[in-house]
């Protein structure tokens, strides 16, 4: 019997999949990602929960590389919530200007620092419900802090995460909260934080938005979107990125 070959630029036709089949396929893909990215981790530099919170707020609409170049001077000048809350807005704006949207981000940093000082005794809160009450902090930022500073499982639904889970056929949802709920239901909580890192790493390195490197992707046999990008190994390998992601 002749075997069918993938057509470049065309995703595979999706077959009906049972709930159990989806869970098994998703978990198998996660195991492959675990083997592919054994060193996956948060690529923001931080020394404590406050630094991670600030860096994550600054990472909106920019790259981790740019944030990491900006935060050393910022934290040297304002190392604690108390000191950042008392910062001169113009000085703070100047320090974070390279990350873009610096006026709005400065307002968020001043607001969250004051809230941590006044409502949480100078300590970054350790629950999602409390974190999202801070100015400029949504569920994505809260889950980054919970998972990477406090070891509390959380899914970081950023652009890469959302794109990949839809491309993998794990969910069709586009709302970040609903995406988080659907994916959380596929995996045990102990996997959530590292799954987030693995998907983000894969999205940055291989499964790009416009031209994914399908021909060198370890998930090819399990991905319903195989063929969205080049399937020939030589062409696909040219698309692989290794960082830094500036």
Query: Total helix count?
Result: 12
**Structural Rg:** 20 Å
Low-confidence stretches: 1-9
Shape: globular
H and E string = HHHHHHHHHHHH
Estimate the strand proportion: under 5%
Q: Report the end-to-end length measured between terminal Cα atoms.
A: 48 Å
**Overall average pLDDT:** 93
| Oligomeric status | single chain
**Helix- and strand-based class?**
mainly alpha
Q: Give the biggest sheet.
A: none
Query: Strand tally, please?
Result: 0
The residue fraction in helices comes out at 40-55%
Concise account of the structure shown:
The chain is mostly helical. It has helices spanning 19-36, 49-58, 64-77, 81-85, 89-96, 102-119, 128-131, 139-149, 159-167, 176-184, 189-205, 233-237. Helix 2 packs antiparallel against helix 8 and helix 5 (89-96) packs across helix 6 (102-119).
Note the topology:
Blueprint: H1 19-36, H2 49-58, H3 64-77, H4 81-85, H5 89-96, H6 102-119, H7 128-131, H8 139-149, H9 159-167, H10 176-184, H11 189-205, H12 233-237
Helix pairs in contact: 2-8, 5-6, 9-11
Write a structural description:
This protein is mainly alpha-helical and 246 residues long. It is built from 12 helices and no strands. Helix 2 packs antiparallel against helix 8 (139-149), helix 5 crosses helix 6 and helix 9 packs across helix 11. The chain is globular. It starts with 18 loop residues before the first helix and ends in a 9-residue tail after the last helix.
